[in-house]
User: Which sequence fits this backbone?
């Protein structure tokens, strides 16, 4: 029932009217159980199979009910193809892709039924659209269908012509797929992990392959150029060349703006998200907030992408000490249904908010939110370290010496399993906190005796670099100095 409800809730008003009309025609003026089930779901009167079957058949779900549900699902999906693409999809690229596939199916069907004129017209129309929007996979299938028609009528020359075109289409489409895969290999680690070890040789090999594909196409594919830019931006992030990443973002914007196939809401918003991410890492928080707010305006409301934009707006407010505004954003995100579609995204929202509630002095709320991050912190690194860090900070502030030292001993055991992780900064924090705990939270003595580690944290270079988008949301060296200064007053 969940899938059927999702289908119905996703329908536009014009599609609802079309489906009702089709179901009424199918019923031949008799009572239609399919129409009844559709109306029950659309009006939100039923949520489960039991509710629906009891309403329609006055008994629990049975074979006839499940057949009815399956047929209704099929009718809804098929009816989606009846609507004009321009009325359903908002971006030219998606419209082109769907139209290409639709005209390919229709043209092939008409030729098989010997309606050659209209069938060829649709196929050639699809071919022009595929060329215009760099749809190499669709273009190969269209040319294959055209080859099969023309070869028996015009002979070997036509066969050679179309075989060459199909080969070029497939070769280019393979490059599309490969460059997309390489882009993901370079970008996914920066999206989902708080801590990641960088195999520089491996990511350089990915970049080199992406570079080779891009150069081999000689600028003929905007799609490959898109993958190339995203790949390079994330390579520069992984290798901490943030100014180069910023410059690559600046060249990314005109590529998208001037392209008929790339100029979409998701691509525009994604480019702004990339720039926001880079600006955060450069600690240019004011400019990062400008891009984050632009991103929020680009993405549609109540979408998963909007949640990502809100996350960056939250971080911008947090790092510029606008904690009330950050709290408002957290509350807004909880009202977006898509937040519940990803456990990790939901828990990351809780994690970010836990740090914010700590900053405004609501320790109990902070601890409650941290307790609701079990899946996010399950891998015992990254966000897990951040969770432990915040709990340590709270313990130190509340002067709970024994619990603090116990947590430190547990972390010491944890470090032995994390040799390959990028945690040198956290290990320096551990050294400082351990000394602090062993010396009755004497910040002055700790500052004197642990100056080496504190200087590494303050300087923040190399393995000791602070990442504003990572698990250490409250920069430990700044927090330490604040605590020291407050005790010296």
Assistant:
């Amino acid at each position: 029932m969940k899938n059927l409800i999702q289908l119905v809730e996703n329908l536009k008003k014009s599609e609802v009217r079309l489906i009702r009309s089709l179901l009424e025609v199918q019923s031949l003026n008799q009572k239609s159980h399919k129409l009844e089930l559709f109306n029950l779901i659309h009006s939100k009167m039923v949520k489960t199979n039991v509710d629906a079957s009891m309403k329609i058949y006055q008994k629990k779900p049975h074979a006839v009910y499940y057949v009815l549900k399956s047929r209704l699902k099929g009718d809804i999906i098929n009816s989606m193809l009846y609507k004009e693409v321009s009325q359903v999809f908002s971006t030219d690229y998606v419209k082109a892709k769907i139209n290409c596939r639709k005209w390919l199916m229709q043209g092939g069907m008409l030729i098989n039924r010997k309606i050659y004129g209209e069938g060829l017209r649709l196929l050639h129309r699809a071919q022009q659209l595929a060329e215009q929007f760099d749809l190499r996979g669709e273009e190969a299938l269209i040319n294959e269908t055209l080859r099969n028609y023309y070869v028996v009528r015009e002979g070997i020359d036509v066969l050679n012509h179309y075989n060459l075109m199909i080969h070029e289409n497939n070769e280019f489409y393979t490059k599309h797929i490969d460059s997309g895969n390489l882009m993901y290999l370079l970008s996914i680690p920066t999206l989902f992990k708080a801590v990641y070890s960088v195999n520089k040789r491996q990511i350089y090999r990915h970049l080199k392959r992406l570079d080779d594909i891009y150069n081999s196409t000689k600028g003929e594919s905007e799609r490959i150029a898109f993958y190339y830019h995203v790949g390079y931006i994330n390579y520069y992030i992984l290798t901490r060349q943030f100014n180069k990443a910023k410059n690559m973002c600046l060249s990314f914007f005109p590529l998208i703006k001037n392209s008929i196939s790339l100029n979409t809401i998701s691509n525009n918003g994604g480019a702004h998200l990339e720039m926001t991410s880079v600006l955060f890492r450069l600690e240019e928080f004011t400019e990062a907030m400008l891009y984050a707010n632009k991103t929020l305006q680009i993405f549609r409301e109540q979408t998963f992408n909007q949640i990502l934009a809100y996350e960056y707006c939250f971080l911008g407010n947090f790092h510029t000490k606008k904690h009330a505004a950050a709290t408002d954003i957290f509350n807004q995100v909880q009202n977006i249904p898509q937040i519940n579609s990803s456990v990790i995204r939901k828990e990351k929202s809780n994690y970010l908010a836990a740090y914010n509630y700590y900053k405004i002095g609501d320790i109990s709320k902070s601890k409650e939110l941290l307790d609701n991050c079990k899946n996010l912190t399950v891998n015992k690194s990254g966000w897990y370290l951040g969770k432990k860090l915040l709990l340590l900070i709270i313990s130190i502030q509340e002067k709970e010496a024994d619990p603090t030292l116990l947590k430190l001993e547990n972390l010491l055991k944890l470090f032995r399993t994390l040799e390959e992780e990028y945690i040198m900064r956290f290990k320096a924090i551990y050294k400082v906190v351990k000394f602090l705990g062993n010396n009755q939270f004497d910040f002055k003595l700790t500052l004197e005796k642990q100056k080496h580690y504190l200087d590494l944290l303050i300087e923040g270079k190399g393995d000791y670099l602070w990442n504003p988008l990572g698990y250490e949301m409250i920069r430990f060296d700044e927090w330490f100095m604040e605590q020291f200064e407050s005790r010296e007053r």
User: Anything to note?
Assistant: The chain has 25 helices and no strands. Residues 268-376 form a domain with the Serine Threonine Protein Phosphatase 5, Tetratricopeptide repeat fold (CATH 1.25.40.10). The two ends are 64 Å apart (CA to CA).
